[in-house]
Amino acid sequence: MDKSSRYIKMCKEAREIQGGWNHKTGDIFVTKKGEVLFWVPGKYGALEIKGGFGVTRDDKIITLDPYIWLPRYNQLIETIQATSQSHFRDITFLFYSWLRTPYGIDIHHSPKKLFATNEQMWIAYLMESLYHKIWTEMAWVTVEKKEVSLPTD
Q1: pTM for the model
Q2: In this structure, is residue 149 part of a structural domain?
Q3: pLDDT in tens, 17-35
């Protein structure tokens, strides 16, 4: 699982993904202190998560701490699959085709050369395929839609 500072930044800036996080036991997240934790109700972090915030109650005081979800690559694939209503086979074929295409403003680099881990490649693919955004090392930037798109059934 990628816990690099680059992947954390990519996830933090992917507001579309963060906004859709429905936490489950075993999800990986980062606290505002930079701790990388697994979501286990009552064990690590707050007792509950609402809208990307850990909610802690102490007497009459409620504390909200921002959490950054670090989706595993299988969760990214599932997100694409659910959003596009495409088969895993089709998504995988398009992903491997996308890996060989130019990425970003430098047409000499493919995603395969720019991203170090499965998670980084799949989040970049998801953001470009679903939201028409590319990673610039600082933020996701909107670009024109590429010809490679997800099929609909």
Answers
A1: 0.87
A2: no
A3: 998 898 888 999 999 999 9
